[in-house]
Amino acid sequence: MSENINLTGKINERLPAELVRLIEAIGAIASHQDQHLYLIGGAVRDLLLERETFDLDLAVDGDAIAPAQLLANTTQGRLTVHTRFKTANLRWKEWRIDLAAIRSETYDRPGALPKVKPGSLADDLFRRDFTINAMAVQLSPGRYGDLIDPYGGREDLEQGLIHVLHDKSFADDATRIWRALRYEQRLGFRLEPATLELLNRDIAMLDTISGDRIRHELELILREPYPEKVFLRADELQVLPRLQPGLKGNNWLSERFEQARQVSSPTPPPASLYLPLLTYTLTAEQVEQMIARLKLPKSLSQTLRGTCELKSEIASLAAPDIKPSHIYDLLHSYSPAAITAVSLAVDSPETSRNIRQYLARLRYIKPALTGEDLKSTGLAPGPRISDILTRLRAARMDGEVTNRAGEEKLVREWLRKDT
Ligand code: ATP
């Protein structure tokens, strides 16, 4: 029998007093209606690990909307109610508080979304991914703060193990394979040996997962402080090639992700910088397969395509004496995201320097003369004007001209030669 653990002290230490007060009040109200309120999942894990958390999942064995409304009225937070799912979500300061009715889930077939129905707390916890996420804390008076841990989550936390709750877990929902690696690497844990065996057994089930769900898991990975750790591990366990053959989790990727963090600092890199680095090793065809598999949004897809295309053209950017206008010609049709990714991915310091020069300076250079100015000299509107403006911009970049008077002189020379 497990000892009785009470987390009141940790709750008071780690949650703001105002929020604790409210939770106590909601717990008391629920209890008047013969209902119980619980804190569930990741926040319980993080309380035990003494890690920071701003996501609270509250569950009640009854109606979740009324307590959420109370929480919203008293905190002045922003409440969103999903009547269909009988859940509510409250944003208050940096906190995200989800309230849901306790429920259980069954899967009709592997990879399908689960069917949801009311159930007991143990059922609710049983639908979770891993034992460390399948604990709850009682928030009703009387047993306030008591840890509920039917599946041995606390022991796995102590031993640093990611452990599924039952043998069909990965087959029911193979996104849990990616989730296992994400938690393992985030927390510095290991997969529990039987869980590792199940992962190997069910790895093919990853193919049953919809693009939207896999993409969501990938987005969560990219929001981790060190996403490359997850990709290294996914490579080792053959999970990465299941996503797309040709992807590599290795030292090269780790170094590039680290550089991406440096150039993006103080904010973490967006997916539009991490992803083209991840897909840098892919052929154009593989990039298309990955875009289709993950149903990537348009602009991100364009960034991945652009990166791949640019990769095949950058050899000439390595020349030390390349003219700035030539750098501009090579790069200007690509998105800044694709160009930044390539600048981090390339091995040649010359290329990288030339690309940085484009991003920092060349792309902003414009001639002093405008189309209007040229028209006022008597030039007819048409392609000739844009051709002259392009040549002027190149002359500016290459230092052949530095001011408006110089540009006027150049244009006069060009026009004289052309006539
Ligand atoms: P956490 O909130 O655990 O730190 P997160 O915010 O990165 O992690 P989410 O994807 O928001 O993770 O998951 C929140 C909780 O929902 C998890 O603690 C987990 O128990 C549960 N959960 C999410 N996805 C699944 C799934 N596919 N199968 C089972 N449980 C899941």
What is the topological layout?
Layout: H1 8-14, H2 17-32, E1 37-40, H3 42-49, E2 55-60, H4 65-75, E3 78-82, E4 87-92, E5 95-101, E6 103-106, E7 115-118, H5 121-126, E8 136-138, E9 147-148, H6 153-159, E10 161-162, H7 169-172, H8 175-187, E11 190-191, H9 193-202, H10 211-222, H11 227-236, H12 240-243, H13 251-264, H14 271-278, H15 284-294, H16 298-311, H17 324-331, H18 336-345, H19 349-360, H20 371-376, H21 383-397, H22 404-418
Parallel strand pairs: 2-5, 10-11
Antiparallel strand pairs: 1-2, 1-8, 3-4, 4-5, 6-7, 8-9
Helix pairs in contact: 2-4, 8-10, 8-11, 11-13, 13-14, 14-16, 14-18, 15-16, 16-18, 17-19, 17-21, 18-19
Short description:
With 419 residues, this protein is an alpha+beta fold. The protein is built from 22 helices and 11 strands. It is elongated.
Largest sheet: number of strands, sense, barrel closure = 7 strands, mixed
CATH homologous superfamily identity of the largest domain: Beta Polymerase, domain 2
- pLDDT under 50 segments (min length 5)? none
- The shape, in one word, is elongated
- Helix segment tally: 22
Q: What molecules are bound to this protein?
A: adenosine-5'-triphosphate
Strand order of the largest sheet: 3-4-5-2-1-8-9
Write down the CATH class of the largest domain.
Alpha Beta
- What is the number of domains? 4
Report the β-strand fraction as a percent range. 5-15%
Whole-number mean pLDDT: 92
Helix content: 40-55%
Radius of gyration: 29 Å
CATH fold-type name of the largest domain: Beta Polymerase, domain 2
Output the structural class. Answer: alpha+beta
Terminus-to-terminus distance: 98 Å
Query: If classified by CATH, what would the architecture of the largest domain be?
Result: 2-Layer Sandwich
- DSSP E strands, number: 11
